[in-house]
Amino acid sequence: MAGHSQFKNIMHRKGAADARRSKIFSKLAKEITVAAKLGAPDPAMNPRLRLAVQNARAENMPKDNIERAIKKASGGDDENYEEIRYEGYGPGGVAMIVEALTDNRNRTAAAVRSAFTKFGGTLGETGSVAFMFDRIGQITYPASAGSADTVLEAAIDAGAEDVESDSENHVVTATFGDLGDVAKNLEEALGEAETVRAVWQPQTMTELDEDKAATMMKLVSALEDDDDVQAVYSNFEVSDEVMERLTAA
After folding, report:
1. Containing domain of residue 231, as a range?
2. Cα separation, 226 vs 129, whole angstroms
3. Is residue 7 within 8 Å of 14, Cβ to Cβ?
4. Which helix (H) or strand (E) covers residue 29, if one does?
5. Regarding predicted confidence, which is higher, 60 or 7?
6. SS3 232
7. Spatial contact of 96 and 122, defined as CB atoms under 8 Å apart
8. How confident is the model at residue 128 (pLDDT cuts 50, 70, 90)?
9. Please, which pLDDT band fits residue 243 given cuts at 50, 70 and 90?
10. Domain CATH code at residue 6
11. Is the CB of residue 204 less than 8 Å from the CB of residue 132?
12. Edge-to-edge strand ranges of the sheet holding 95-102
């Protein structure tokens, strides 16, 4: 029976991974469709679409899925997605920003509010926490793209603001307005990046104890599990010891 139980556990994990992958593809497809609707359906002529396609490729999204999402934008479908930003506070006073793409504002607002309430958070007004974050561009390359010095030199030449390198990645930051140009210049020097995106970077961090961190992670997970939510940003941090205990649980 042990072997049977092990098989069931493996299949459960595989099923969970497949479900997560499907959800990621769905969100990427939505962003591609919106980007194609707002501009030209050609990535070469539409910077936002180009970034969306690039990020989809980084997640190994099939080419057919990408092309289908682009065609959907010009297919005359009735789905019109609206970009909405929600702001609020999580457990321990953690500042949070939630970005969504939705065709039903009421549905999404209710779901986001429910998640905040369930896990001890409070949804605020637009602008209530955004001042605690900086809107920046973030470009990620794998460590194999080159040495830290090589990537730093390329980033400086490309007009980037900063680079952080570790054993796995090089993370290049740029001003929000310069993201497209910096990404293009870096691609010429280093090849295609893994991801290119605009993010909300917290100005200061809020450290949480184990109990609040556990609740906070449940809140983030609940929000990310919503089909309308594209990204969740927060300013919480936990110690390595606490994180080890939480991930082992």
Report:
1. 81-249
2. 21
3. no
4. helix 2-38
5. 60
6. strand
7. no
8. very high
9. confident
10. 1.10.10.200
11. yes
12. 122-124, 82-89, 95-102, 229-234
In the block, residue with structure tokens 């289908």:
68
Which pLDDT does position 17 carry in this prediction? 57
What's the CA gap between 90 and 108, in Å, rounded?
18
For the cut 50, the answer to whether the pLDDT of residue 55 exceeds it is yes
Query: Of 21 and 48, which is predicted with more confidence?
Result: 48
* Helices 63-73/2-38 angle, 10° precision: 40
**Of 46, 73, 100, at which residue does a domain stop?**
73
Give the contacts of 139 (CB within 8 A, at least 6 positions apart): 160, 171, 172, 173, 174, 179, 182, 183, 186, 193, 195, 196
Residue 200: helix, strand or coil by DSSP?
A: strand
For the segment 216-224, the average pLDDT, to the nearest whole number, is 93
Burial class (CB in 10 A: 0-12, 13-18, 19+), 219: buried
Q: Residues with Cβ < 8 Å from 117, sequence gap 6 or more?
A: 123
Are residue 183 and residue 233 in the same domain, yes or no?
A: yes
Pairing of strands 236-237, 206-207: parallel
Query: Are residues 86 and 106 located together in one domain of the fold?
Result: yes
Domain boundary at 54, 73, 92, which?
Answer: 73
What is the model's pTM? 0.82
How far apart are the C-alpha atoms of 91 and 215, rounded to whole Å? 7
User: Is there a single domain that holds both residue 95 and residue 191?
Assistant: yes
Please tell me the predicted confidence (pLDDT) of residue 72: 87
